[in-house]
Amino acid sequence: MKAKLPIALFLGLLISAFPTCAQDKVKSRDELLRLVNGLKYQQGEIKLKGSLAKLTVPKEFSYLSPEDAETVLVKLWGNPPGEKSLGLLMPADKTPVDEDCWVVMISYAEDGYVKDGDASKINYDDLLKTMQKDAKKASAQRVKEGYTAVELVGWAEPPHYDADAHKLYWAKELKFADQPENTLNYNIRMLGRRGVLVLNAVAPMSKLDAIEKETPQILGMVNFIDGNRYVDFDPKVDKVATYGIAALVAGGIAAKLGLFKVFWVFLLAAKKFIIIGVVAMCAWFKRIFSRSKNNGM
Questions:
Q1: Half-sphere exposure of residue 10, counting CA atoms within 13 Å on the CB side?
Q2: Element (H, E) at 54
Q3: CA distance 104 to 107
Q4: Rounded distance, CA 64 to CA 78, Å?
Q5: Which tens digit of pLDDT belongs to each residue from 165-184?
Q6: Is residue 245 within 8 Å of 114, Cβ to Cβ?
């Protein structure tokens, strides 16, 4: 794959707007290309977290291991190091520095068996209003701490739950005050015996159609292995999560619950969270490439 002039955007559970961090990570075009060319793209059948789940990657996609995902998130995109993911999914014809690249980060929250009995009873419009109020409060605190204001604009795609497959997906539109384009936060959750597989894509809103088009295929790629499936739950020995489907979607409402402390509140309020500003990063990479060219690199 040929590396193009990057426009860096961050994904994952984790985002904010801060262009300076990456400057400490990649010093030259040669280093950038070395990191990109060192990534090992995988396809076919891949085991996630030992025998937890199986990922079947078709030719249209590529998978990057947890180690390569860390290279992308930390070294290429300048995010602070943290707990490693289970890897990244991305279109097979893209690299992490391509202008129109988008990725899906995979992780796992072992919070217990999530009961789904409330799924069909949830009024997602009402839930959204509550989430927007929570987001407004969190954003006000964020501004006090010197960070950019963030607004939850609304559903980019309202929640859908497949009760047979025990898979849930939805998308939110976020507006960062200093960004020219709104941000898409696309979420996929797969319920298992002891926890939830978490797939998150963060991209500009312009990528909604592309990601939405691929969602059915992505949903079909990942499945728990026998023994870890939702139907394998044993009430005699297995832990039950302290939240249901509504809290799984809301995040902010369930701030004191493990998975959402890591996701929604982290996104809106945490000091350590860094989303790389697309415009600022693009300008920085242009300077790097221009300087390298002038130096004969």
A1: 28
A2: strand 53-57
A3: 10
A4: 17
A5: 999 999 999 888 877 888 88
A6: yes
What are the residues facing 161 on neighbouring strands? Answer: 168
Residue 221, exposed/middle/buried by CB under 10 A (0-12, 13-18, 19+)?
A: buried
Question: Of how many residues is the chain composed?
Answer: 297
Q: Do 265 and 252 contact (CB within 8 A), yes or no?
A: yes
Tokens of 46: 């891949």
Could you tell me which of 275, 243, 292 has the C-alpha nearest to residue 17?
A: 275
Q: Which two tokens stand for residue 272?
A: 């350590």
pTM value is 0.74
Strands (DSSP E) contained in the chain are 44-48, 53-57, 61-64, 87-91, 104-109, 150-162, 167-176, 183-191, 196-204, 222-224
Nearest to 259 by CA among 271, 273, 245, 238: 245
The conformational region for residue 106 under phi > 0 = left, psi -120 to 50 = alpha, else beta, is beta
Going from the C-alpha of 226 to that of each of 16, 52, 98, 218, the distances in angstroms are 38, 9, 37, 19
For residue 56, report the phi and psi dihedrals to the nearest 5 degrees. -110, 105
> What pLDDT digit, counting tens, does each position of 238-253 carry?
999 988 998 888 873 2
**What would the two tokens of residue 206 be?**
């312009």
Radius of gyration (C-alpha) of the chain in whole angstroms: 19
**In Å, what is the CA distance from 29 to each residue of 26, 41, 122, 296?**
8, 21, 50, 11
158: exposed, middle or buried (Cβ count in 10 Å: 0-12, 13-18, 19+): middle
